[in-house]
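Lab notebook, bench 4. The sequencing result for the construct came back, and we need a structural model before the next group meeting so we can plan mutations. Quick request posted to the team channel:

Model the 3D structure of this chain.
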Amino acid sequence: MTDASSREADAAWFDGLVNRRRAVRLRLSGALEILENGVVVDQWPLASIRRADGLATELRLASSSAPELARLVVTDGGFRSALIAACPALYAEETGVHTHWRIVGWSLAAAASILAVTIFGVPLIADRLAPMIPVSFEKRVGDMVNGQIGAIFDTKTCSGEEGLKAFAKMMTAIESAGLAGMPIEARVIRSGVRNAVALPGGRVYLFRGLLDEAETPDEIAGVLAHELGHVKHRDGMRRLVQAGGASFLVGLLFGDVTGSSAVIVATQQLLNSSYSREAESGADGVAIETMNSIGRSAVPAGELMLRVTGDQKDGGASILASHPLTGDRLERFRREERPAVGKPILDFGEWRALKEICVPG
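Done. Here's the predicted structure in token form:
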């Protein structure tokens, strides 16, 4: 009960350091003194005391001088009235410059955290996650990405009979090196875009526009070998995780990626953004090793990339989008070249048939 002469009352105290309710005695003097077993264990300046959220039947107090989670719970009506009279800022809200800057500070910290996760966290997760994703699941993702590409390009497959035979012969030669790491499904696509892409799950697309640009079978074979390098290292899956961000990761976690709008963004990134230097270097290495393995040179592929890169008059998508070729990369092709001692991948007639694969029969 309240002692009217000394203005004291019993209360419950949570000190904000441990999760324990302590029975204390409060005393109003020049400050609000907290006594336990007759000993003052803490005191709160009266100007620092604010009302905290609580039940209507109690007065719950906090103090800017105490730990953030510290609380006093007062139920004595008479003492509550004395507190209201003694504490000038009891019902004041924390406004003003300090609160404003604290809000600004927390907002900046939150933005910095999001930015850090985007720049460092998601790429790191993608690097760790991509090799762990089962190939069967990656193929499902590839099917979905293929559908999105169909909405962006004319993905009608070229089907000239002799051209298909020549293309199959070329892919057999390339795959004989055994560097892809998974079964490959390769097609020539009717679109005039000058590009070649590897989708998650082992799909490789050669666009007619790039085939039209090529002058020799080795140019196309080297580019396709480069794409098999991306398949081997699962770079397409890694980029999808990076581009799709958190929503794509959640979709992967719950096995539902087909309904995620992040997939559309991720597919566009797959087509229009460059791989990292490490990814391109790794795919170059596979291209060089593959072509050397079958007795051919990877240099023509580098020359094709450079030729297309240096002739971007139409402003459309091209091999530059996903394979920016630099002088040092082409120099690597030349430095690691071995003499072309193997048989030509295609003879003259087969090469002509491949070049005409998209011509209606």
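The chain has a mean pLDDT of 78.
Will bring this to the meeting.
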